[in-house]
Design goal:
four-stranded mixed beta sheet; 10 helices; nine-stranded mixed beta sheet; binds alpha-D-ribofuranose; UDP-N-acetylmuramoyl-L-alanine:D-glutamate ligase; alpha/beta; binds adenosine-5'-triphosphate
C-alpha cells in the first residue's frame, strides 16, 4: 500500500542544549552537566516523527548555506524525508539555545535566521504540487503569511490542515478559519482563549464548530471536536528527563495517524503514547522512537 503523504511547512533549527540541575539566575554563572548539539526546530521535529510513524513526508522550509544547514539536510535525506521543496538562504540556519534543568523542564531562545526567509510563493507552489497530499502541518516559527498561503492552497485541494500555534503569537482570523485542527499546549491555549483549559464550558467556547486538541503535559491531552464532544486522553506516568520536542512528537504523530485513516481519537491516543515516551530521553529528535517502537505502541 502507498504511504500516506504529509507535508510540513515550517522551521528547522540546530538545538544547542546545556543541561544543568539548577539553572543560573540573572548575573550568575554555574557549571552545567552536559552540552549537546542536536537536530530541532518545531517543523523539522514534526516532519521527523511523521516519517518515523510511516508517512511519506515533505519538508517545506529554508536552511542557511552553512554547516548546520548541510547537516540538517543530510539528516532529512537519511530519514527519507523529501527536501525537493526545501530552499537555501545566505542568512544563517536557525538555532535554538536551550537550557534544561534537573526536572527536565526547558527554557528556549530561538534565532530563526533562514526560517524567516521562506517565500510565500515557494510554499504555496509546494503545497499545490505535492501529489496525493493528505495533511499539511505548520507552527509559528515562520512568518504567518507563509502559513496562510500554504493552508489556502491546501484547503482548495481538500487537504487537512493542522496548526500547532507554538511559540505563541496572535493568529489572524483567516488562519484560524483555514485551520482544521488547532493544537496548542496549555499556555498557548490560555494566551489564545484568555482562560486556562480547565472546564468543559471553556473548552467548548474555544473554537465552536471547529476541531482542537489541547496538550496538557503530564496530564496527556484533550480533544474538543467540531460536534462539541470532549475526549480526555491520559498520559502514562513516566520518569521525565527532558521534555524538549514532546509537543512536536504529539503533533507529527497525530498528523501521520490521521493521514493513515485512523480516527482522530485513536490518532491522539497514539500521539500521547509517543510524546510521553520522548520525555524519558534527552533532546528533541534524538528522543524520538523508531518506527518499530511506534508500531509497538499502536
Ligand atoms: P514541549 O514544549 O516541552 O515540547 P509542549 O508544551 O508543546 O511540550 P506538552 O503539553 O507539555 O507540550 O506535552 C505534549 C505531550 O507530551 C503530552 O500530551 C504528553 O503526551 C507528553 N508529556 C509531556 N510531559 C509529560 C510528562 N511529564 N509525563 C508524561 N507525558 C508527558
Ligand atoms: O519544540 C521544541 C523545539 O523548539 C526545539 O527543537 C527547538 O528547536 C525549538 O524550536
Amino acid at each position: 500500500m502507498d504511504k500516506a503523504v504529509v507535508a510540513v511547512v515550517g522551521s528547522a533549527m540546530m538545538d544547542l542544549t546545556a543541561y544543568a540541575k539548577t539553572l543560573p539566575q540573572p548575573g550568575q554563572t554555574l557549571v552545567g552537566d552536559l552540552f549537546t548539539t542536536g537536530f530541532g526546530g518545531k517543523g523539522a521535529n514534526q516532519a521527523v516523527i511523521a516519517a518515523h510513524c510511516g508517512a511519506k513526508t515533505f519538508f517545506v522550509g529554508k536552511l542557511g548555506r552553512d554547516s548546520f544547514g548541510e547537516s540538517i539536510a543530510l539528516n532529512f535525506q537519511e530519514l527519507g524525508i523529501d527536501i525537493s521543496y526545501t530552499q537555501y538562504s545566505d542568512v544563517a540556519t536557525g538555532v535554538a539555545h536551550i537550557w534544561v534543568d534537573g526536572n527536565g523542564e526547558n527554557r528556549i531562545v530561538i534565532i530563526p535566521g533562514a526560517n524567516s526567509e521562506i517565500e510565500i510563493a515557494k510554499a504555496s507552489n509546494a503545497i499545490s504540487a505535492i501529489k496525493n497530499l493528505s495533511v499539511v502541518i505548520a507552527q509559528c516559527e515562520i512568518n504567518q503569511d507563509v502559513t496562510v498561503a500554504a493552508f489556502s492552497v491546501a484547503k482548495e485541494r481538500g487537504v487537512t490542515t493542522i496548526l500547532n500555534p507554538a511559540p505563541f503569537m496572535p493568529l489572524s482570523p483567516q488562519l484560524l478559519q483555514l485551520t482544521d485542527w488547532l493544537i496548542p499546549n496549555e499556555s498557548e491555549f490560555k494566551e489564545l482563549h484568555g482562560s486556562p483549559p480547565r472546564s468543559d464550558e471553556i473548552l467548548k467556547s474555544f473554537r465552536p464548530n471547529k476541531n482542537s486538541i489541547i496538550t496538557l503535559g503530564s496530564e496527556g491531552a484533550v480533544l474538543v471536536t467540531a460536534d462539541g464532544s470532549i475526549v480526555p486522553i491520559n498520559a502514562p506516568i513516566v520518569s521525565v528527563v527532558d521534555t524538549t520536542g514532546a509537543g512536536d512528537a504529539f503533533v507529527g504523530t497525530f498528523a501521520c495517524a490521521l493521514a493513515n485513516g485512523m480516527s482522530p481519537i485513536d490518532s491522539a491516543r497514539l500521539g500521547v503514547a509517543v510524546a510521553s515516551l520522548t520525555v524519558t530521553r534527552k533532546g528533541a529528535q534524538s528522543s524520538y522512537p523508531t518506527q518499530a517502537e511506534i508500531e509497538m505502541l499502536s
